[in-house]
């Protein structure tokens, strides 16, 4: 039987022949190329040190933002819990009054039933849970004496108020549960962000950590340079203002006498003096906290987060600030950076997730981030673009 396999042309066979050794070499080359191709992405997947630093900083910022949410939820929860307790007390008082009104109605109904002065359906009406439903029945209203009518009206009022208080308490309890849920969510977010940051840092080698520290020192040097530049600008501005004031005073003295100039200058001095006095107290408190650890959600006295520190500092000066950075930024007058005075609050980032208290010369006292301590630092510690606004709180 003839074979159905087609024979190969001789030329093709000779040209295409491969020895086992050549085939093995070819396969090995392919395997190596495949391994190289697979290995390349692994090397590329490892982030650079700069990328790690940025990621860690972002995580710390996100943690601070989540901390503000936690602080807001915690404050709201405390207020809501207080409201719930008040409402529950009100419900208890209303229930007592309702019971007293019910007993009074019962005594009227029992007396009428014994004397036959009232039909049985009247007693049913007086003892019903919702007597308002029967008010349209004028034949019953006609049978009631004045005292009975007052008793029924009192009962209906107490019942209505009690139901209202119970509804308010129920709604308040639901709100409390929601804020407690927000509190747990914010807390979990903070812990997750901090854990991610710690994990990234733990993967760095000793050499990488040293390089990261060097990068941080360079940033601090640049921040110090910018702070010194701002200090020079503020000093020049202050000198120019003083010279302008002296010139104005001199001109006023020559034209209308020194007395009028004295009166005009005294109108602005008390406000500035008052603020400076309060700011001095706030700064004295802040300086006394230097070296204490940053702990998210903390308001002292052993540790602080950023807004907890500024709130406590101004409280020492007799000024009450809100708890969160989002509210503190609205608790005063916004001023320009060049007009910043000691005691002013400096806010950072578009999400207002950080705040420090200005001490002058481009420097501030703040609680920076987890793993750090309250310290003096340039307001340019994270670059000029990170500065959001300056607010004078008092």
TrEMBL record:
Residues 276-394 form the NlpC/P60 domain. SUPFAM superfamilies: Cysteine proteinases (SSF54001). Residues 224-273 are annotated as: Disordered. InterPro entries: NLP_P60_dom, Papain-like_cys_pep_sf, PG_Endopeptidase_C40. Residues 1-39 form the signal peptide. It comes from the Bacteria. This is C40 family peptidase. It comes from Streptomyces coeruleofuscus.
């Amino acid at each position: 039987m003839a074979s159905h396999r087609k024979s190969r042309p001789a030329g093709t066979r000779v040209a295409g022949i491969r020895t086992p050794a050549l085939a093995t070499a070819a396969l090995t080359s392919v395997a190596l190329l495949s391994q190289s191709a697979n290995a390349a992405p692994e090397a590329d997947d490892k982030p650079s040190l700069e990328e790690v630093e940025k990621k860690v900083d972002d995580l710390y910022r996100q943690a601070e933002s989540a901390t503000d949410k936690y602080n807001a939820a915690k404050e709201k929860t405390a207020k809501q819990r207080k409201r719930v307790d008040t409402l529950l007390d009100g419900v208890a008082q209303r229930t007592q009054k309702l019971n007293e009104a019910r007993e009074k109605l019962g005594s009227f109904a029992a007396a009428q039933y014994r004397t036959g002065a009232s039909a049985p359906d009247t007693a049913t009406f007086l003892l019903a849970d919702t007597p308002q439903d029967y008010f349209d029945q004028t034949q019953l209203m006609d049978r009631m004496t004045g005292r009975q009518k007052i008793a029924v009206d009192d009962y209906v009022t107490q019942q209505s108020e009690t139901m209202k208080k119970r509804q308010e308490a129920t709604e308040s309890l639901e709100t409390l549960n929601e804020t407690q849920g927000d509190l747990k969510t914010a807390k979990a977010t903070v812990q997750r962000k901090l854990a991610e940051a710690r994990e990234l840092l733990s993967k760095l080698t000793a050499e990488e950590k040293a390089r990261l520290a060097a990068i941080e020192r360079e940033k601090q040097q640049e921040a110090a340079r910018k702070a010194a530049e701002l200090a020079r600008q503020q000093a020049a501005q202050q000198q120019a203002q003083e010279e302008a004031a002296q010139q104005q005073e001199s001109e006023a003295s020559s034209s209308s006498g020194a007395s009028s100039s004295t009166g005009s200058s005294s109108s602005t001095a008390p406000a500035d003096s008052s603020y400076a006095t309060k700011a001095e107290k706030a700064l004295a408190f802040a300086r006394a906290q230097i070296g204490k650890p940053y702990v998210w959600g903390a308001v002292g006295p052993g540790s602080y987060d950023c807004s907890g520190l500024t709130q406590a500092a101004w409280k020492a000066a007799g000024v009450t600030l809100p708890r969160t950075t989002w509210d503190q930024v609205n608790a005063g007058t916004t001023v320009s950076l060049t007009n910043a005075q000691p005691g002013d609050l400096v806010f950072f980032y578009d999400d207002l997730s950080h705040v420090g208290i200005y001490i002058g010369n481009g420097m501030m006292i703040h609680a920076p981030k987890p793993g750090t301590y309250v310290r003096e630092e340039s307001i340019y510690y994270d670059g000029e673009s990170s500065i959001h606004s300056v607010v004078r709180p008092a």
